[in-house]
User: What shape does this take?
Amino acid sequence: MNAPDALLIDQPPQTLREIAVGRVRSAIILGRFASGTRLVERTLCDQLGVSRSVVREVIRTLEAEGLVETARSGPIVARLDWAQAAQIYAIRRLLEAEAAAACAIRADDSVKADLRAALAGLQDAFALKAFDELNAATSRFYEVIFFTAGHVIAWDIVQRLNGRISRLRSLTLATTDRRISGPTRMAAICDAICANDPDAAAQAVRDHLTDAADIARRLLEESP
Assistant: This one.
């Protein structure tokens, strides 16, 4: 107990509210709770094993993230349509292409190793169809890019959209086309950054998001 860090808690345990938020967020992102599904407090209390006050905090948090909206009947899973998705992809295209280009200029061996490690985690999760892990690995991949680029404010904007971005990602991953192009496009982004080629990195991001947006548009416009 002589070491000054002996009592340091590296990662505080999650609160009950945080666990409940994570469970419901994941259920929405993965489509277990479909768009428009009414979120009944009593039902969620029983499903989660928590009090009404915790459920109300969960709903407020997810409403702020854009995953829940209020209808006349009460809170429901937010509807996802192409008009909203198109705006999200447009924002991502601008912010992520700029960040990838700046990252490619600054990337040293340490950054390249971090990026390759994140890509490997992403590919492993994809192969196992472990979508929660895939979303976490993808977030880590982009975190390396944005922080290396020094685009901290842009990363904050992306994080505020993260729930809706993850929801779109889960939607497009369910298609055959996305399974082929997704990991390939992400690897192209990584390769361009590791080659310190800013133009190629920005273009790889645009190509990746164009593929994803095309698939999302088709799926959302076909849905009832």
In short: The longest helix spans residues 82-106. The first strand starts at residue 68 and ends at 71. Residues 64 and 160 are 9 Å apart (CA to CA). Strands lie at 68-71, 74-77.
